## 1
Amino acid sequence: MTTTDTGSSPAVFAEPTGTALSLLLLGQAADPRSERGVECPGDLPAPSDPDLVARALAAKEALGERVFILGHHYQRDEVVQFADVTGDSFKLARDAANRPDAEYIVFCGVHFMAESADILTADDQQVLLPDLAAGCSMADMATAEQVEQAWDVLEELGIAERVVPVSYMNSSADIKAFTGKHGGTICTSSNAERALTWAFEQGEQVLFLPDQHLGRNTAVRRLGLSLDDCVLYNPFKPMGGLTADQLRNAKMILWRGHCSVHGRFTKECVDEVRERIPGVNVLVHPECRYEVVESADYVGSTEYIIKTLDAAEPGSKWAVGTELNLVRRVANAHPDKEIVFLDKSVCYCSTMNRIDLPHLVWTLESLVAGKPVNRITVAPDTAALAQAALEQMLALP
Ligand code: 13P
Ligand code: SF4
């Protein structure tokens, strides 16, 4: 359980379609599945306020070492300029844990990242998420109730004892606690191979939550399992829509979750860009579908993607399959390389985009005024179990 200032709770909603989806991908509409309709309870500055940058600088300077600002690579430029560190989910979790002196951690990212930071920091440190509506639709695809029901199924079949849960960082604190309770580990896109290798040393089968693509891509491409070793567990169907034998014989039980941003990239996008830009290197995030990852040249976390592009030869050509803020920023930083977005249409993560400069200014100024807003607090019993799973990840060989 996590508490926030508004106490909003996750819900499962239908996929957006047609115009709604187009607006969402343009970053101009709300995603009701993970943006929970949270109104900002304070005096949010107007986006047109010409003093926003000066206000953010002044508040940050007034707070000094008391505040530490983390920025995920998908954040807007206007926010990233104020981050003390940027990184992928793994690096940011480690950075938060390694900053015991900061009274306030302002997390410019999404809800599950702020929860993880709260779990990994001391009780007297406060983690703030500038907009509580910054959720993650993938994380919302596995609720604690659904996962407990699935575990009951595995217990009834008599196989739970040999199943090790591995949960992607993109999951709620409740799912992380479930993972800790059953002796599993958390993983991120930069350590999923090590996490799965470890899990198969502890048990015979893995329940991978909630991103089917990261689970399948890692198991098949990195661990050498076959596609037939993987089954897809649909939480909306009895027994996940699988037979007892399918569940007993699978090495990987993949939860039916996905990222709607990375789901935009198709094999056709890869074929089209290769035809349009001869000699192009295709570089994608492992949340993309299996056939996309299979047809790419390089695959890795957001941090890996940035490092690969930073190190690329001048004049080299790249098509990148991940969120647009990241791709645009890295393309602007390297005008000597041709770096394009893999999809033809623009593709922001609408929930990451919720954190903008007005929300950051509001959060920092509230701290200066001694009235912190949007604190993310994970309940102690949940946090203790989730911490075990997160620490298992941080201790992976
Ligand atoms: P990284 O761990 O690679 O930063 O990915 C997080 C994420 O949400 C990607 O969609
Ligand atoms: Fe979640 Fe996808 Fe956004 Fe990452 S890009 S935070 S997985 S919705």
Note: The pocket of iron/sulfur cluster (ligand 2) is lined by residues 110, 136-138, 170, 259, 261, 287, 323, 349, 351-352 (CB under 6 Å).
## 2
Amino acid sequence: MNILILGSGGREHALAWKIAASPLTDKLYCAPGNAGIAQDAECVVLDLADHAAAIKFAKSKSIDFVVVGPEAPLCAGIVDDLEAAGIKAFGPTKWAARLECSKGFTKDLCKANNIPTAAYRRFKGAGPAKEYVRAQGAPIVVKADGLAAGKGVVVAETIKEAEDAIDMMFGGVLGAPTWEIVIEDCLIGEEASFFALCDGETAIALASAQDHKRVGDGDKGPNTGGMGAYSPAPIMTAQMEKRVMDEIVLPTVRALAKTGAHYKGVLFAGLMITDKGPQLIEYNVRFGDPECQVLMLRLMSDLVPALIAARDGQLKNFDLRWYADAALTVVMAAKGYPGSYGKGSVIKGLDGAAQVEGTQIFHAGTVADGKRILANGGRVLNVCGCGKSVREAQTRAYQAVDRIKWPDGFCRRDIGWRAIAREKPVV
Ligand code: AMP
């Protein structure tokens, strides 16, 4: 098959690495890709917002299957447009992608189908929203309805903070003013991510992961797109995974099917494991980044038939095999991230780092300049390790990190701390 991946981050590098390893793959393209992806696929310049250009390219290269990485093109309906042009594509339609693009839509769907999630109200104006906050008290969570690149959620510790968040969201600080916000109760527990593959009618479990959103050690400092992740999440026992499938994922897929919005693709459930059981915080309609990187390292089976079965509605009797080992990824970011940062600094030592046993490096934001690899984004590299325990995976990942010579970059030194604290000490 000729396969085209859309996207340019560490998630897409992990997908390219796994898809390139499939015996079903003849030729792999990635648009726009990065310097690491170029080792597994031919990178092509395409604007992902220009669906007509993607269709033209796919037709010109006889592409059999397109795998869409990021949420923005999914929410803009790229799968609908590719399929309408006769090109098979993996990912939800625009209608089904509302699970990520509209928090209000997802909350209403959960309520109507008894899917456990925090109690909430939707608001179109600041006045009633503030009244509700004052009546409910703090802590309370304020969310903008649309896609906001991770900046649309404020967990307010005080009523004043919640009121400021309401003004900020309706006032247009997030780029465009929000038309609607959701205000919901604050859930208490431990967060985990869970991934499932859906074919429109049913779903199969992929795996769990936990990520580190804050920029600094000890989970301190501003939020980022994710500074590291590991899989599996120790809190997601087999029993908890079954509950999440039965109480959250499958009811969602079935409810959408009933409305005609058949959900095909990866469903990424952000969960809070509370003392009452798993509660849905939010859905994303694609693999997480950097969670995808650790999932791909743990997946033993060929990914390509699984993605095709999801697209074709054939997951009912499908099975995937996983390595029992843990995988962990450390994100190396440009100094200054998640604020402003420079581009173009030289990264050395990648070949030496790749030699550390049990490691894999995925590129997130790099560009090649002849033989040199230059930083080209905020999150730049995903240095991954695998091992019998999260601790071993972490040790290997940091051994590789320490071989990378990049003075303009930084990383957290404690990725996986929560899981490692739970593991039995090595004797
Ligand atoms: P979201 O973009 O919806 O995943 O929210 C971003 C982060 O805000 C989550 O990862 C949680 O840490 C936090 N959060 C969101 N909703 C809630 C909630 N209802 N209760 C507690 N924390 C929340």
Note: The radius of gyration is 21 Å.
